[in-house]
Amino acid sequence: MINKPAGLVVHPGVGNRKGTLANGLVYYFNSLSEINGITRPGIIHRLDSETSGVMLIAKTNQAHINIAKQFHDRTIKKEYIALTWGQWPSEKGTINKAIKRKHNDPTIFSVKDGGKASITQYQLIKQFNHLAQVKFYPKTGRTHQIRVHSSWMGNPIFGDNKYGGGIAKTKGYIPELKQYYIQAMKNFNRHALHAEKLGFKHPKTGDFVFFQSSLPKEYITLMESIENLND
């Protein structure tokens, strides 16, 4: 298990050949799984570069195959925490909407019939005046799934420019609030999504184990600021 910081790209790709998590793993470990090829050693799953939190890495092919099957069978327990815009319609619910890559921009996904089945459960933790702290429990593992589903609900993740949660979301607020939220986004400098917990069956012992990643300092600072604003 590793605790991935925000801003770290998981594996090499176009424009990111060096300085990725995969590059670092090769440097620090003598042996990693080879299932996903030489550019993704040990990588079983991924987090978006701006998303912080817990990730699993496989040192052996056997462990990789075992855990990958658990992801495929949807027995992995995943828990994320996020700061989102707007008022949520209920304290908890399930978003069951297919997701598909956009034809005109392959880096963006959207809710669309004919896409891949995608299921996300959510639980409202705290509702503020204009924002909310929410926990997400994705049952599938589609690219950008939580971000897309949250945006589709009308509650994009704070700071998520790609899915409507960026500076444009401050339009319509009184000048003081608009400036406050813009500055908060600039200070935070990413979208407010954190992979908090990950549970799975240990490939050797068979015991179900949980790993947890504490909120990073910048996320705690952001939440304290939002709390103070709403007092």
What does this structure look like?
Strand 7 and strand 8 form a beta hairpin. The protein contains five helices and ten strands. Helices cover 24% and strands 25% of the residues. The relative contact order is 0.16. The mean pLDDT is 91. Strands 1, 2, 3, 4, 7, 8, 9 and 10 form an eight-stranded mixed beta sheet that branches. The chain has a two-stranded antiparallel sheet with strand order 5-6. The chain is globular. With 231 residues, the chain is α+β, with helices and mostly antiparallel strands. The protein starts with a strand and ends with a helix.
Gyration radius, in Å:
18 Å
By DSSP, the count of extended strands is: 10
Q: In whole angstroms, how far apart are the ends?
A: 37 Å
Q: What would the average pLDDT be, to the nearest integer?
A: 91
Q: N-to-C SSE series?
A: EHEHEEEEEEHHEEH
Q: Quick one: biggest sheet?
A: 8 strands, mixed
Number of helices: 5
Class by alpha and beta content: alpha+beta
| Residue fraction in strands | 25-35%
Q: What is the 3D shape? A: globular
Secondary structure elements and their pairing?
Blueprint: E1 2-4, H1 21-28, E2 52-55, H2 61-72, E3 77-85, E4 92-96, E5 99-101, E6 109-111, E7 119-127, E8 131-138, H3 145-152, H4 175-188, E9 193-201, E10 208-212, H5 217-230
Parallel strand pairs: 2-9
Antiparallel strand pairs: 1-2, 3-8, 3-9, 4-7, 5-6, 7-8, 9-10
Which features does this protein show?
eight-stranded mixed sheet; two-stranded antiparallel sheet; globular; 231 residues; 24% helix
